[in-house]
Amino acid sequence: MKHIVFLGATTLAYLLTACGGENPKDTAEDKPKTEVPQEPAKDEPKQPEKPQTEPLSPEAQKIAKKWTLREFTHTDGRKEDVAKAKQVMILKADGTFEKMQNEKVISTGTWLVKSNVLVTTSAKGEIEKAPIKEATDKKLVTTSDEGKMTETYEATE
What we know:
- This protein is mainly beta.
- It contains two helices and nine strands; from the N terminus they run ααβββββββββ.
- It has an eight-stranded antiparallel barrel with strand order 1-3-4-5-6-7-8-9.
């Protein structure tokens, strides 16, 4: 029995020596060099490519700014409570837009004004057309859903 325990202990010691650790005679020069592929730096955010857009028309340049939805009215006179939703639409001078709700971006894409209609095309390819009823430096009023609803925006910032 003593021989079996001794043999087991010797075998275990041999396995641990063979598997764990380096031979002290090995040097870095003796080992084959393997190159680890370099990954791109993680702290560098990937910049999305900006879509090519046409120069803005003069009527579009007038509304290129940040707009906050102040009123949403149905043709029957019912008004939706929009204060809680904090809906913002940023029409940028480069022809891109961001729509936000409660400070969270919900849609991005490109925009233009054609024949007095605000046309937005989301990054997902969804196209919305909103005829412009009124556009001043401080107020933008559009209709949507085939004229069944009116959205009134106020310029902010």
